[in-house]
Amino acid sequence: MASTYLTRTPSSSSNRKTWTWSAWVKRGLVSGGSDQTLFQAYVDSSNYTQIRFAGGSDLIDIRNVDSGSVTGRLETTRVFRDTSAWYHIVVVWDTTNSTAGNRMRLYINGVEETSFSPDTNPNLDDESTINENVVHWIGKAGFSGYPNYLTGSMAMVQFVD
Fold first, then answer.
1. At 91, phi and psi to the nearest 5?
2. Residues in the chain with pLDDT < 70?
3. What does each C-alpha distance from 138 to 37, 52, 155 come to in angstroms?
């Protein structure tokens, strides 16, 4: 998917406190310094929610940025560089959960990732940009001049509101 992507703009905002995103992902190339975005909801560079392979490190990075501040972020300590493997990636956002460590969760191939650095949990009832009435990108970032396309393949992309 070197420059292939999908977009969708919801007709109205919906629940931004609880959602789940999943996909089967096969990397085509390791990043070599460029981020590779899996999913992003984007207002502007100060307001977005993103799931990506971080450039240069090949870690999975999930972040929510609100008014220029990172309000939630998980970045794995484990790298994902196997270009022959399919990874089943599941991200759960649930800021209604009273346990801070359960508000952002990441599963790879059915196993919950538990080692992150940084590990910044959102506050109770924080809203993500996901499900806001803005452009949602699959396989590309919305940043102007920095599309950060996914180099690889995605299958069975699912989103549960």
1. -115, 130
2. 1-2, 31
3. 8, 10, 11
